[in-house]
Amino acid sequence: GRACLPQVGATAPKAMRLLPASGRTATQKVVVGDQDGVITCFGIKKGEAVPVFKTLPGQKIARLELGGALNTPQEKIFVATGSEVKGFTKRGKQFLSFETNLTESIKAMHISGADLFLCASYIYNHYCDCKDQHYYLSGDKINDVLCLPVDKVNCITPVLACQDRVLRVLQGSDLLYEVEVPAPPTVLALNNGNGGDSGEEIVYGTSDGKLGLTQITGSKAIPRWEIGNEKKRGGILCIDSFDIVGDGVKELLVGRDDGMLEIYNFESADDPGLRYDHAFSESITSIQGGCVGKEGYDEILASTYSGWLTGLTTEPVHREGGSGEEVKLSQEMQSKISSLRHELEHLQIKVLQEREKYQKSSQSSTAVSSVPAFSVNDKFTLNKEDASYSLILEVQAAIDNVLVQSDVPVDLLDVDKNSAVVSFSSCDSEPNSNFLLATYRCQANTTRLELKVRSIEGQYGTLQAYVTPRIQPKTCQVHQYQIKPLSLHQRTHSIDHNRPMNTLTLKGQFSFAEIHAWVVFCLPEVPEKTPTGDSITFYFQNTFLGTQLESTYRKGEGCFKSDNISTISILKDVLSKEATKRKINLNISYDINEESVRHTLKLIHPKLEYQQLLAKKVHLIDALRELQVHEGNVDFLLPKYRSILEEADQLLEEYKRQPAHLERLYGMITDLFIDKFKFKGTNVKTKVPLLLEILDGCDQDGLIAFFEAA
To answer: Where in the numbering of this chain does the BBS7 helical hairpin domain appear (predicted)?
Structure first.
């Protein structure tokens, strides 16, 4: 059953908690902080919310945690707002206002007794009784922080979840070790709520929807289990442990940014299985298990981005027993419905009055136009599986339409979950103008829209989304996303050093900060802040082709190695352009490995073959269907043609989802051909039509021979 609870303002992840039950009642109070800076605390009686306290608005609340002396009920409420931490009692009386020395807003917070752990972008700070203890500067942005339970491990062991795909384990102000995880970790939780028997077990969730458990010992991490994201669901925003089944073993509760709520149970300690899921229409920012509505019935409480709180309860909605019980329930329901109807009528009248008032004031001579503020929660990420970018837009109010505009060529791909109607406008072919103009009109009550685009490496610029919600007066917000020159590359922990590599070396009068800024300009997932130390190495993988890139640079020198000549060619062009803009003379040298071209072609060829076969099959479907109608059966067809008919729907679906896949592969092979000879000082553009003919023939050896003979 679902319980409906009050709506608060838009919420950040990890900003809703259940207070421990106290005194005579077994039910728990809910406390939630929102982006208007308001903390709301309420209980539930007979299905109605009963307020306990509500604070005044202020800066937006990024985190809400519970604390108290160790081994006592954790019922003090702490919120991070701006660079300040405030503390409230469970009755709503403020007892702490701690203005930290952080220059940026707090993004993550953990509390354990008198210890307070705070993170703002790259900075970690540990305070004890509000006094500065330790400080650490991370190599990339920190998404979450927690500390292993002190009573179990007997020392303070903070763990940071960082954007560069690692968990950093600290000791004091120093890095103890790093734990590599498969994708950027967004959230951390203690396993079982207490770190397991050893107190060392941490569950992490990633931005691409993976979950894992790792044991953080004093010297190294021991990975225990990992769940991939086979169902291609959203990124993970919140995790809790709670025994909702009542079998004495806590289940793992997970909330995702596509609105999926999941419950995993454990047949054995290291084997989680999905037991239950429920889809909400917007991202789940916090999840908690407890007893809220009625004694004896546990529930799972979730808060969503726009501030709705929903409970999934174990209480049966239709009680068993005689028919008398049913009638009683419906009477209770009837009175509830009539009071809601009354409230609704009252609100409708109020809205009309306010609208009239606004119209009058906006037409008067002293009119001041008021633009309603609304918050947009957006996420633009590269998916490793299909080398496409997902743009997710979530708005507090319902979305009316979104206009997407791009000044570089991008393909819009199909998204299953997207119910919006898309229409394209034609674009002029002038340089520096639009390559894409598309409008998505949303159905009523859509607050979340997901789009997918695929970019072309070497073509860089900006994708813009103009978001218009259904609010009066009509307002629009513009959000911009950079499509970088090597947009399909993703950071990786290591590369294969045995591949044939091409090398590009730059030397010149540039600082470490300058060359770092150029690398940030060229590649996704590089931290904006210049790394500490004298030099840095980053590894990347091309998600479309599987080729790799190693970039190592310091003041006055940069070295880039890749098994794909086109990657090196793009870097050479963009880096020389950027240096020229800043009037810096670059000395560029390159070392081209002939073997690498054959290697890259061998990587591309299976993909090419697969897409060509798919295209051929799809082109045959209509003719085969016509034969089927004409002949009445398909027994006379060869088995390979019969199977095309049997799989027709899947084939069409797959082809529709990747409209320009084959064109992109042809484009990459053509670039490879041109780039190979560009480094030799030869222009082979006249030979491209011949290359395309060979590609249609699709013979790997013939293709390699053409590359080597040209």
So the answer is: 594-707
